[in-house]
Specification:
This protein is an alpha/beta fold. The chain is built from 21 helices and ten strands.
Amino acid sequence: MKKQLISLIHQRLKELFTSYGIEDYGFIDVQVPPDKTNGDFSLNAAMKLAKAAKCAPQKLAAEMVARLETEKDWFSKVEMAGPGFINLYLADRVIENSFNELAARTVIVEQAPAGGEKTVVDYSSVNIAKQMHVGHLRSTIIGDVLARVIEELGNPVVRQNHLGDWGLPMAMVIWKAEPEIAAIEKRGVDLTSELTLARLEELYKSASAECKENPAAATACHDYLVQLQQGDKALLDLWHKIIRISMAEVYRIYRLLDVKLFEENERGESFYRDMLADTVAELGKSGKLVESQGAQCVFLEEFKGKDGSPLPVIVQKSDGGFNYGTFDLAGLRYRTATLGAQRIVYVTDARQALHFKQIFAVARAAGILAVPDVKPLKTRSGENVKLADLLSEAVERAYQVVNEKNPGLSEEQKQQVARTVGIGAVKYADLSQNRNNDYVFSFDRMLALNGNTAPYLQYAHARICSIFRRAGLNIDEFAAAAVISQREERDLMVKLMEFSAAVSAVAAELRPHILCNYLYELAVCFSAFYDKCPVLSCEDEKIKASRLMISSFTRRTLAKGLELLGISAPREM
């Protein structure tokens, strides 16, 4: 509807703009005003064009209003407001027609042009032999939402999980775990039943402590690293077993969170190990490589130390080894040259911001990176609380809420709803915040059935489903024409038609909280509609069917929005 409205405005005002010598008005847009009493849409073109027209904004706005008022099929009222704004009040039949057309579609989010923009999304990025903690939550679920949203808009998405699975930390784990793995396998016991991720983390911490205190241990681990990098078959076999044990627990949490990351999305540091030398050679060809104290470095003027001298970005150490930055540069080369990425999104901890700024700057300076839109999304990190423990507690607390609010559910239903509500509450509490902000973690607040929470949205969805259960109707197959008989119906229909714009805004700005805010406003709007517009008790059959249709489409929109957030929408709570 918005595109049609803009096209109409351009057509109607073209002659007026021409008379003022204005040729460029293609940027004119219509906005949804924060206060719906000021019209359905607002137009500030007069403010923008007054200088080019060489007249006061109010004069130009008045002439625009006069032209637009003639479009009676579209507008019930057009008025000037303030210093040149124009409020547009759509005719009810325009709302009805646009809403019914949208509700009849199979896909309710406007798709990108054919082919779309190929996007790589790098998120989660867990370390092998380390349990996921709360700090991993934000990167994992924000990245998952961005991938879902960008994909929903019709763009091909390549998910990448950059695992920390190479280098000295892995050699330390192998060195410490080798005798334990040998003993387990000698007894003929399944390795995964006795060697857990928690145990691997203990072994890593033990090895790290020993290396700090005992030079012989440090030397042994370094020797293991050299042998691993040279392709020692026995060590590679141990390395592979440790990765799979670690990732089995990670995937258990991914499935609990309903995160769309799988083994085929793994692109650990090890994946790029044979590309490192070529990457450094590529930097050398660009003329950006400088030797400093035996190391190969890139110096960029935009990154300076306290003394004002450029900081080095080391891509190859003096001993010939490579560091994390080299792996990231190799990853960029692979994602642009091999995967053909047109857009790359990195979702990382805020503490890695400088590292990625330097890596992207080096890649651009060397001509490795031609993609203009590489975004290291900074998310605040959480405390080092085990993520599995956090999610378990959320489900337990949600069970208490469900048991209190709906004791009539079967035990199986209570468990299922508790899992859905608990996990959804944790994810939404994080996603609903601006990703650059900290927030207070409160189970009571995130599990509340009122306010901007996942349970509030889930309850709104379940309440709509209950309407159709009471009516004996199939909510998924119900169809009827929507008509406007009260203001609350109109407001809800207009709000529902803003969904696609909210999803597009998330993809453009890479901020999931935009969708959260929209869904909360939608749920509040539905609550007002439900209070003022009786559905099942409505005596007028045409209006009753209309209200059922509006309710059904609200449920569908809430479900799709929650799905894009990776949150389940229960039909009963």
